[in-house]
Amino acid sequence: MKKLPVITALLLAGALAAWYFREPLGDLAAAYQTRDMFVTAEAATMTLGPATGSHFPGLQASYQGRRITLVQEFAGSNGTVLVALRSLDWCVYCKRQLVQLNEYKPFFDAAGIALVVITYDPPPVQQAFQREHGIDIPLLSDEQSLSFRTLGILNEDFQPGDSEYGIPHPGLIVIDDEGVVAGKLFVESPEQRVDSKAALRYARRALGLKSPFALR
Question: How far apart are CA 117 and CA 84, in angstroms?
Fold first, then answer.
């Protein structure tokens, strides 16, 4: 009978340790899960989104309490890269991709290319992630998935009532300074994303920016 208090104490200690270290353990698990997620631009073989050479059809999203219909509001001097992500709440691949994109934002800025991210998350979810990770990229909220439908990137594998209903196929669309689609990158597997360095090189080529640009 004396063993019961000892076992109970050990179980309680284990539970407390698991609770105390839950965030570091979660970070380690996410890092392991996403260790091979980044691929080259050549791996983006899906033909989704508005046709290259067509005029970008616009958005129906919100940003800082305002309705957003034109991506030009965020445009850089040479163009814009609109990045569609699934969720900053439950998608570990989206979270890691956004953190990496934010690290490369100074290189995009120096090339005159603006980065804009859109997800189906409500603004409070986006803002919490933005604060936690120091994200400087504008995050647009498309809770009704209207932009994803307009752009032709809505994932139709899910139905109303599914927790993932309304998510887009993750990828990016390059838009030039005249609002024309210059290129796009969509990878078939949602567990893979084009590396930010490769995405910048692709965007520069798509926008006709020929001067070399050093990347770390």
Answer: 6
Record the tokens describing residue 183, joined without a space: 């290129």
Residues 18-55 as b/e (b if ≥16 CB within 10 A, e otherwise) read eeeeeeeeeeeeeeeebeebbbebebbeeebbbeeeee
Q: Are residues 15 and 108 in the same domain?
A: no
- Per-residue pLDDT at 163: 87
Q: Would you mind telling me the total number of residues written for the chain in this entry?
A: 216
Is residue 27 domain-shared with residue 83, that is, in the same domain? no
Average pLDDT over residues 11-24: 60
Indicate left, alpha or beta for 188 from its phi (over 0: left) and psi (-120 to 50: alpha).
alpha
Nearest to 171 by CA among 99, 120, 121, 97: 97
What range does the domain containing 9 cover? 1-33
Give the pLDDT of residue 157: 94
Is the torsion defined by CA of 72, 69, 197, 171 positive or negative?
A: negative
Tell me which DSSP letter residue 43 carries: G
| Same-domain pairing of 57 and 6 | no
Q: What is the pTM of this model?
A: 0.85
pLDDT of residue 210: 76
Angle between helices 22-33 and 3-20 (to 10 degrees): 60
